[in-house]
Inverse folding.
């Protein structure tokens, strides 16, 4: 019995490390959160953060239940969904890259939970990561608990590290007031978002 418990513990730890590597690394959602935190601050970005979290839960549910695989068994539908996701993320990257310096706190139009939700659901990197994590690892727990435990770990990793990306972005807020640094940072965030979309295809 102790050996079995140790085996489950080791497998769970390995899974958690893999989840952090895949889900906490730079991606469209994490970079958008950092940019939002820098441009609007922690408080104003709360709805955006909540929307992304909800969207990621939907994405993970689609993968865990097999609906993601079913959708992708229809090539035309899969291609359409992929194009929509890529176009939305590219549009968001463009908005971030061309955002003006912070001038008037009261006039800022912050991204709401709806924008975050769409980004979470359309996040190609997240689908690739969830598919790899939920389909390639075995924890050794009872079958009825296996997917639930893995999904819970993935969700905790997403919530904790997405919040840390948002917090890290908020620490850069003063730089976004300066016109030159604002432009450099916005463009950098935008380029990285586009780059992570390309990288996500290598994970699929």
């Amino acid at each position: 019995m102790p050996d079995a418990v140790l085996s489950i513990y080791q497998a769970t730890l390995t899974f958690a490390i893999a989840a952090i590597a895949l889900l906490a690394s730079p991606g469209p959602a994490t970079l958008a959160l950092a940019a939002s935190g820098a441009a609007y601050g922690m408080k104003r970005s709360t709805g955006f953060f909540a929307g992304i979290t909800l969207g990621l839960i939907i994405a993970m549910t689609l993968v865990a239940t097999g609906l993601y695989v079913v959708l992708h068994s229809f090539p035309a539908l899969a291609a359409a969904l992929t194009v929509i996701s890529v176009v939305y993320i590219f549009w968001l990257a463009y908005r971030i890259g061309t955002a003006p310096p912070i001038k008037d706190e009261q006039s800022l139009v912050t991204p709401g939970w709806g924008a975050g939700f769409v980004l979470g659901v359309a996040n190609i990197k997240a689908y690739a990561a969830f598919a790899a994590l939920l389909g390639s690892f075995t924890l050794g727990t009872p079958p009825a608990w296996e997917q639930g435990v893995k999904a819970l770990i993935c969700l905790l990793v997403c919530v904790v590290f997405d919040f840390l990306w948002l917090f890290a972005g908020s620490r850069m807020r003063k730089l976004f007031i300066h016109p030159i640094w604002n432009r450099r940072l916005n463009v950098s965030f935008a380029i990285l978002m586009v780059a992570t979309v390309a990288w996500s295809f290598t994970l699929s």
